[in-house]
Write a structure and sequence with these properties.
Layout lengths: L2 H9 L2 E3 L9 E3 L3 E5 L2 E4 H17 L7 H24 L6 H14 L4 H10 L4 H22 L7 H8 L2 H6 L3 E10 L6 H19 L4 H6 L7 E9 L5 H6 L8 E6 L2 E11 L5 E12 L7 H16 L4 H8 L3 H4 L4 E5 L6 H9 L9 E3 L2 E14 L1 H32 L2 E3 L1
Antiparallel strand pairs: 1-2, 3-4, 3-13, 5-6, 5-8, 7-8, 9-10, 9-12, 11-12
Helix pairs in contact: 2-3, 3-6, 7-16
Protein name: Chaperone SurA
Keywords: Chaperone, Isomerase, Periplasm, Repeat, Rotamase, Signal
InterPro entries: OMP_Chaperone_SurA, PPIase_dom_sf, PPIase_PpiC, PPIase_PpiC_CS, PPIase_SurA, SurA_N, Trigger_fact/SurA_dom_sf
Length: 425
Amino acid sequence: MNIKAMLLGACLAASTLATGMARAETEMLDQVVAIVEDDIIMASELRERVDSINQNLEARGVEMPPEEVIIRETLDRLILESIQLQKGQRVGVRITDAQLNDAMQRLAGQNGMTLDQFRLALEQQGQSYQGMREQIRKEMIIQRVQQGNVNQRIEITDQEVDNFLATEEGQKMTQPEYQILHALLAVSPSAPAAEAERAEAYVDKILAEIQAGSAFEEAVSAPGPYTFSGGNLGWRKLDDLPSLFSDLAPGLAKGETRKVRSDSGFHLIYMADRRGDESMVVNQTKVRHILVKPSEIMTDQQAQELVTSLKSRAEAGEDFAELAREYSEDIGSAQEGGDLGWTSPGQMVPEFEQTMQITAIGEISDPVRSQFGWHILEVLDRREEDMTDRATRNKAMNYLHNRKYQEELDAWLRQIRDEAFVDIK
């Protein structure tokens, strides 16, 4: 059956009912257009989505594709959405009202509105705010389902990272970025020496004002015998800077101004900001712990009393690692004697991290309560670790991951569509 004819028949069918009173009434009929696993797609749902797409295309001034193409592609999209929503339902994906409210707030903010203004704007356009909320909820569920299924299909090896970092693209991506303000006092190379000296003296005066604390843009735009040209170059990587700036940028500290002479005249170059080349040295702590969780057979107070007694036993000479193997309920570390290895700031929950920071090397902390239960911890050592190289590799790995994501997503969507039971009416 022709898809266009199907939609017209399903969506626009109407019957005139005679009542014997010389009046007719038109009633729109709704029908199932597709069965997708345990779900159905109704003609009204398809019609509503097609209308929305047509309105968006018209508002953007885009040439309208043939109607049958819009119908076919929209139905395909609805089928894929249904498959993914059902997968999310089966594994218990839920979007709370608080999470949905946050998403709506962000959406309103992106349109330069408060949430109330956004709701009013939707209503003025004839759209339902509640309908928009439910559509956003569905999109959030689908996004989580996609991430959960696609991320596990992506593996980035160390060799791939090495190979990427060795390429021109990889080297440029990991380059630092600079935000430079530039002011030029133009002086011709053939200008008399006295004129060049007067111009340079003025540039030196402005430079001294900036170094004394004046704002760069105010200093170079202040009324005077000379006028500067230039402006903000924006954020640029080293390779994207003119050679005059690329030679200086790596050696300029944030907030520093440098005077340079070229054939064009005298330049003032101000490093407004820089990012991506910071040395990432972090303070790490080597720590082990024992965790006791309150339960139906152990009250919160009993759990606290147990870890308190374990601290006393460890301080009396019993082996902390053996106590952890016997009593700790942290599955990940218990068999390792409670050893958590070297931890960086932000890895642990706040209560644990605060206690870890104030505990001296070789000491066992007082019991501390976190969301997981009661802990005692022993600080074994501390060190400063340069994480710069690791941060660069993580940046490259994230880039490679994102590059593979769309490819794997497309493959996964084709797979679930092929595997699903779909009956188009």
